[in-house]
Structures are given as C-alpha cells and as structure tokens.
Amino acid sequence: MITAWLDDIELSWDEPPTPTPTPTPGPQTATATAVSVTWGVPAASAHLLTYAESVALDGPVLWYREGESSGDALDSSGNGYTGTRVGSPLLAQTGAHTDTSKSQDFDGSDDYIAGPNMNLFGGSDYGSDFTIELWFRAHALGGPFLSQTRAATPTRRGFQCYIWTDGYAFDLVNDAGTSYGFAEMVSGRDDNAWHHVVIEKSGTTYTIYVDGEVSSQQTLAVSGTFTAADRVTVGTSMLNGTHSDHPNGLMQDAAVYTKALGLSRVAVHYLLGGPPVAQERAAVAVASTWGVSRAWAQAIPTVTPTPVGGDPDIFANPTPVVDPDVFTDTSPSVDPDTTATDQEATCLMNTTACVNVALSRIGVSKQIASFSSDTNKEAVLARLHWGLDVNRCLRDFPWGFATKYHTLTPVIGNETAAANGDWQYGYLLPDDCVMVRRVIPPSGVRRAYDANPVVFRLGTTAAGATLFTNQECPVQIEYTYRYECPAAAPDSHFRSALAWRLAASLVSPLARDAKLVDYCELKYRQELALAGAGQGNEQQMEKDGDAGWISAR
Question: Where are the beta strands (DSSP E) in 68-177?
C-alpha cells in the first residue's frame, strides 16, 4: 500500500505494475521523488518524471510511440508486438510533447500500422476492462485511429476508435452484428491541434477523456460473443475483407492497457505530456495522484499495495515499510481522519467544507465526506486542482494573514554579478515564499505609496531561488508565504475566493457549462476586490512628510 501526504493531507492510490521499468532523466516539472517513493526506485535514480515514464509505470500491453525515423513501429511495452508500417507515412514529425519525441503523419488514404494478432478484449460479453490512449492532431475528420476488427461481410466485427463530425467516438460490434457505441458529441475536433484522447471501459461504464477531462460517459449493457479478431491496427479498420478508412493527421503514443486507468491517472498523463500551461500543474498532480509529498527529499524502499473495495484506482491507507537510514521525513503514516492531531483534523474538516462549497456553487449536489480519503470523482478532481488553486489565490492578492517580513541571506560568493550583469547583488529567498510583494527601502519606512521603490528581479542560482537587486545588505522583503491550512485562513474573503477559484476549475469536468467558468472567475475577482476594500480599512501606512519649503513656512 502507498501513503501520500499533500499539504498535510494523506492520500492513497493505485497499484504499480510489475516489473518496474528502469527510469531515465526527463525534463518535466513533476517532483523527483514521484518515482522513488511510489514505485520503489532507488534514491540514486530519483529524477523528474516524464510522460513516457508515467505510461511505462502504468503497464501498457501494447504501446507504439511512433517516433521512429524509419522501419517498423516498435512496441515500447516490452511485449515485442512490433508493428508493420503500410503506405508511405511521414515519419519523425514534430511530436505532441515538449521533449524531443516525434510523431507519425497519416495521409488519410492508405497509411496504417499493422499490429499483432491478439485478442485484446474479446470473449463473452466483452467483459474485460481496458484503456486506449493516444495523442492525435487531426488535419481532417474521419477514420479509425485504433481498432481490432475481423473480415466480415457486410459489416465490421470488433471494436474501433475513430474521429467524426461529432468528435471522438467508440464503436463495438458483436458476432451477431449488434453495434454498441457512443461519441462525445463535440464538433470541431479537426482543429489541427494536439489532443490527448483516452477511451476507457470500467465495468459497464465507457468513458471518453479529452485533454485530461471527461468529455463523454455512457453505460452500455454489452452482450453477445466477440470472436478473436484479426490484427490490432493503428490508422485503419477492416471492412468487407479489406482495410478501409484512414485518419488524416499526426499521431503519437498509441497505448493499450488491460485495465481502467481512471480519471486521476488519465489527467496526470495529459499534464505530463501536454503543453507548458498544463505542465505547470504537473508537480501537484503527480504529488496527489502517485502519492508523493512535495516536501520529501528522500527515497523509501518498494512497498506492496493491496487493493480495497470501491474505486479500482484507489488503494487503502498503508503503513509503508521504510528504511530509517534514508527516510528522514517525520510526517505521520496514519489516517488523519481517525488519529490526526486536533490541528490536522480541523484543517481536514475545513478543506472538505471548502470543496463542498465550491461544488455547490456550480450546481453539483453530491458532497464529499473527506477530502483526503473519498474516492469519488468529485474528491479526486478537488485533490488534483487544490494545490494550484491555493497557490494562485495566495498570489493574486497581498493577504494580510499570509504576509511575512524576512531579512535575506546573500548568495555565497556573490556569483550573481557575472551571470546577471545588470544586478550587483543576489539574495536567497525563503523556502515558504509564494510571491515577493516588495523590498523594504533602506529607510525602513512603510508607505502606502513609494515614489522610489527598490528595483528587483527574481531568478535562480545554484543556491536556489534568488532575488537580484542593486541594494546592499541588509535586504528585507515583504512576501506572501505558503499558509499552513488555507481553508482555515482567518480571512473570510480568502476562504470564499478560494472556493470560487476551485469552483472554476471543477466546472469543465463536472458541470460542463462554459458560462459557469466565466461566472466563477467574475465572482472570484469580486471577492478579491472586497478583500482589498476591507484590508484598506484595517491598516494605517506612514504618510509622506511635507516638503522642506512648506515646513520652513
């Protein structure tokens, strides 16, 4: 079992596959301990998690990365299902991710990959859970991007995932010709932009995810027999004994899993592989989904997860086996719902209440019982967005309760002078700094308005986050710090603003009403304005003195 602590809240998550792949360094923003803590990788191998590693850790049975510059399509799952390229696809094209990985361009005419003869999900009543994942950039509508069908007249038998006028869709036909399927009912998917597309079966629930969020979900009572089909194909399907229909667009990382990944892992795959704006959320997402505290700096040995009832994505709160020689974190490894200190229990209670307020503001009647341990979609999404929304709320206004003053430590050796020629000095920022509001002038006078503020810029040196300025020691800053329990903050405007900010993040996956997003953002800004008015009445800044010639009179 795997224990995770995120902002003093304990989380527990899914079972890692075996065997554990050997990781390689990567460029993304997720925490270096994500692999070492969750998957048992030695501390020496701790690194930044990449999209490719997140896929490997979830154990696909078939995975065509499609980045080769020539030859066959190699199977990165480790199962050896090499695919044969047919047609004349353009290889080694620009990929979906920010790393150097490449994609394949299908021409919509005759390009496809012929995979292995294997019955991925067949059998009576199509009972096995599965997940199909890929990145697709459509130049035009039409064509199956992944299928397993067999030659039958006059219709297909098997399954296919495709793109059409009503968006991404899934179709399943049994031996008797009965068809089951659905589409996301979204137009304009031929926008020539990269999208992360996932189709999942969990029990009788079929879900289409696009860009890390649920786009469509249906309950299908599938029945009948599904005879073992012909080859798994990428970029076509079988009709009347021939391969017909081909997608027109770029494709990358087509992967198949014989299990349901669940919303949380789908979201993290998108965050790690998506555009930079998504990657900014990746560290928080990995921390919450794979069970890593951002504060941890040590690796722990492998732990064995044990599944519990309920959501198959979620695992019970464990007591990890740790090596006292390498594990130095003092966070408790017990369930805070039952044995936490009074302060932790109060924080958990307030956090749960804040999430429920956010849900009610977008018309979601279902409430969560515990922010840390609930396994429903509402709680999982709240944990996914919580860290980012708290950080934004703290940065968007100089909250008095979250304000500190700190005298900075000069960077040893003043190494900033050569690397940053416009600045004479560099000073280390405190670890809990969320945003620097200003540098206190040498006079120490704190005025509401300073005609000559101290000029500075933030950056990074080998020593850490650094403030550059031309002011000599001592340098004191006013800054917003990472408040211990945001949902229990003493400012009611902050608590309300945080609930509106979280509500705006939850609209798309839960309420799916674009107008509500704008409304939540408006209410969020109104709370910030009210906070400004209230805070202005609770402080008194020093006033500027009279000019010398006036005083002389």
Answer: 84-86, 90-94, 102-107, 112-117, 123-124, 130-140, 144-150, 157-164, 167-173
In this structure, how many other beta carbons lie within 10 angstroms of the beta carbon of residue 472?
10
The CA distance from 392 to 501, in Å, is 9
Complete domains list, the chain, with CATH: 1-58+276-334 (no CATH), 61-260 (2.60.120.200), 400-481 (no CATH)
**pLDDT for residue 497 is more than 90:** yes
Mean predicted confidence (pLDDT) in 466-483: 90
Sheet holding 425-428, edge to edge: 409-410, 425-428, 464-469, 456-461
**Which H/E stretch holds residue 392?**
helix 377-395
SS3 content of the chain, % helix, strand, coil (to 5): 25, 30, 45
**DSSP summary character for residue 508:** I
- Please give the Cα distance from 321 to 2 (Å, whole number): 10
The pLDDT, as a whole number, for residue 545 is 52
Is 60 exceeded by the pLDDT of residue 222?
Answer: yes
Beta bridge partners of 425: 469
The token pair at 391 is: 């950080």
How much is the pTM? 0.48
Measuring CA to CA, how many Å separate 540 from each of 24, 149, 447, 536, 544?
Answer: 55, 74, 9, 8, 12
**Span 353-365, average pLDDT:** 92
Upstream peptide bond of 144 is cis (omega within 30 degrees of 0): no
